[in-house]
Design brief:
The protein is mainly alpha-helical. The protein contains five helices and two strands, in the order αααββαα.
Length: 261
């Protein structure tokens, strides 16, 4: 019962059968392509997940080293190092830009860090603690680079997660809803066409039987007419009545049949 209801409402014709078969072929190809796309996205998703885990593990050590370098710089150059750095820095030399990467039709955002211009704060901490200030700067540059990489991985992770969910929904819809419905429709149309073919065959047999009976009736009428004409001619030649002529002709035909047998 469910197989009959889970189908499209269509007129069972040969043309519609071809249309539904073409749609079934398209759905099958689409299902195969979406399945491959889902597998490719899943592989990329797992690779990004591994990178996120390794980046977060190294993030703790990098941030710890950066905080320790800042403490050393404050100890060597004094607590008011912040004002000294701000006075010597005019523009940022480390910047971030974004681009897009295409993975199986899904555009993933990627963030990249780059240096613009030369470092102009080499005189920072010249009075005292200059070496520690530069070490602190290098440690925090490394932290920023790692943070940019982690932000790129996290954004790609979320985008891929949503794309995989959407693709899997489409794959499941094609596999469990669209394809079975089209297949049931094809079976329904084939069954109806077979039934129409049987009905046409039965109709032709009935028509042939009717025509055969009509021909037999016409032949019987022709024989009766021929017998009447023969009896009239025989009665005129012999000068007997029409009934006697019928009797003589019938006896003669019976004798001929007996001779044949």
């Amino acid at each position: 019962m469910s197989g009959q209801t889970n189908r499209l409402v269509v007129v069972p014709t040969v043309t519609m059968l071809g249309v539904i078969k073409a749609r079934l072929v398209g759905a099958t190809r689409g299902h195969a392509l979406l399945k491959k796309k889902s597998d490719a996205l899943t592989v990329q998703f797992r690779q990004i997940l591994k990178k996120i885990v390794s980046t977060k593990e190294s993030m703790g050590d990098v941030m710890k080293n950066s905080s320790f370098a800042l403490t050393e710089a404050k100890y060597a150059a004094g607590e008011n190092i912040k004002h000294v750095v701000l006075e010597n820095v005019q523009t940022a030399t480390l910047k971030v830009r974004s681009r897009q990467e295409n993975i199986a039709g899904v555009k993933l955002p990627k963030f990249e860090h780059f240096s613009e211009g030369e470092t102009k704060n080499d005189l920072t901490g010249l009075a005292r603690g200059g070496q520690q200030v530069q070490a602190c700067r290098a440690a925090y540059v490394k932290s920023i680079e790692l943070l940019v990489e982690l932000a790129s991985l996290q954004t790609s992770f979320l985008t891929l997660d949503e794309a995989i969910k959407t693709t899997n929904r489409r794959v499941n819809a094609l596999e469990n809803v669209v394809k079975p419905r089209l297949e049931n429709t094809v079976l329904y149309i084939k069954g109806e066409l077979d039934e129409l073919e049987r009905e046409d065959f039965f109709r032709l047999k009935k028509i042939q039987g009717y025509k055969k009976r009509e021909v037999e009736k016409q032949m019987a009428a022709a024989r009766l007419y021929a017998a009447e004409k023969s009896a009239e001619e025989f009665s005129l030649k012999r000068g007997i009545s029409l009934g006697s002529a019928h009797n003589l002709l019938s006896h003669a035909s019976q004798k001929d049949d007996d001779i044949i047998f």
